[in-house]
Design goal:
296 residues, alpha+beta, Ribosomal Protein S5, domain 2, Alpha-Beta Plaits, 9 helices, globular
Length: 296
């Protein structure tokens, strides 16, 4: 009998993101505080009757199915755990590409969890996080914890306790930012060696403060402000509209503001919806737990 599982695939914001030097392997060291949010894609995975070991996918993507992280996650899971059953995947996309919200990485992690739950494979999230590093730097986080300190090139994930639910205003400009370009601009601006400033910081204690007391930052923000003046203007508008903290997520182009009052967040969203050159302004929230899977 064919079965299916549906799971929400949440976006993330980087409450803090420090980028270190470019390593010999081409990656950069980073130190970041990742937090999942309520903006999410919906992924439904349905088992098929055949054993041809294929993955077909339906959804709005900018790459061919074979290169999609969801199909790559299926191949990785199948090879690792001996899965032969073919699957059909339907994705309702809400997380924009090129925004620094981790949509592709989240989809890959969600696919791994969906396959585990659909086929009752005895593997925990920590093990999925370990194998998922083959798929991309941010994927392990989405397998592990709603709030985590992420280091290395992104594969080292330290879950943090006491994640909170906080109102956010998420602003999406009408342009994407290429991650490769953002790293190149950052390297060009720096020139030489760059020490990690936040190594050893107590992120758990910092996070527990009210957001207006956070000393978090994003290494990409200064170069993105230079390249895209709108990004700086949007951050400033959020802060002047009672956001307690505002910054770029990842390498952009999404900007978010953190609030402790839902009414203040809604008022700020109304102000921003009057701005030009924006794709979307959303009132969302941080999540304290990952959504549960729904077996059908």
């Amino acid at each position: 009998m064919m079965r299916a599982v549906t799971l929400q695939s949440p976006a993330k914001v980087n409450l803090h993101l420090e980028i270190g030097d470019r390593r010999n392997d081409g990656f950069h060291d980073l130190c970041s505080l990742f937090q999942i949010v309520s903006l999410a894609d919906t992924i439904t995975v349905r088992s098929l009757k055949d054993s041809n070991n294929t993955c077909s996918i339906h959804g709005r993507f900018s790459c061919v199915s074979e290169d999609n992280l969801i199909c790559r996650a299926y191949r990785l899971f199948s090879e690792r755990y001996g899965l032969k059953t073919s699957v059909e995947v339907t994705v309702e996309k809400r997380i924009p590409e090129g925004a620094g919200l981790g949509g592709g990485s989240s989809n890959a992690a969600t696919m791994l969890k969906s396959l585990r739950d659909l086929f009752s494979v005895p593997v925990d999230n920590a093990e999925l996080a370990r194998i998922s590093a083959e798929l991309g730097s941010d994927v392990p986080f989405f397998c592990r914890s709603p709030l985590a300190l992420v280091t290395g090139r992104g594969e080292k994930v330290l879950p943090l306790n006491k994640p909170r639910t906080l109102p956010l205003v998420l602003v999406l400009p009408d342009f994407p930012v290429s991650t490769a370009d953002a790293y190149r601009w950052l390297d060009e601006k720096r020139g030489g060696d760059y020490p990690m400033l936040s190594a050893g910081s107590d992120y758990a204690s910092l996070y527990e403060r009210t957001p207006d007391k956070w000393t978090f930052f994003n290494s990409f923000t200064p170069v993105l402000r230079e390249r895209y003046p709108l990004i700086g203007q949007l951050i400033d508008t959020l802060l002047s509209s009672q956001a307690l903290y505002a910054n770029v997520s990842g390498s952009g182009s999404a900007i978010f503001g953190v609030f402790t009052d839902e009414a203040a967040a809604r008022r700020a969203a109304l102000v921003l919806k009057g701005k030009k050159n924006l794709k979307q302004v959303l009132t969302i929230e941080t999540l304290a737990i990952f959504p549960d899977s729904i077996l059908q």
